[in-house]
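Example record used in the benchmark description.
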Amino acid sequence: MRNRKALLIGINYKGTSSQLGGCINDAKCMRHLLRTKFGFQDPNIVMLTEENPDTRFHPTRMNILTVSYDAKQASLHPESDWYRFDAASCILVVI
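Model output (structure tokens):
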């Protein structure tokens, strides 16, 4: 079985005129689904949200690119990586 990994990004744009209400919750729900239904381990799920107190896990352009690059470098099967983008809620990268 492959050691699958996921990157979840939830951005609500809090405090802006474009504020959304459910994106971080969607990312949390996806994390729960990955853990309970698909057997992903916590250390293999990275979640970037605005509410994380550690700024290394905020959904900034640089953090998203860094985590994506690190995941790609660590991938043993880059030809079978799967990327999913939900414009209003989260990004999921499974490798």
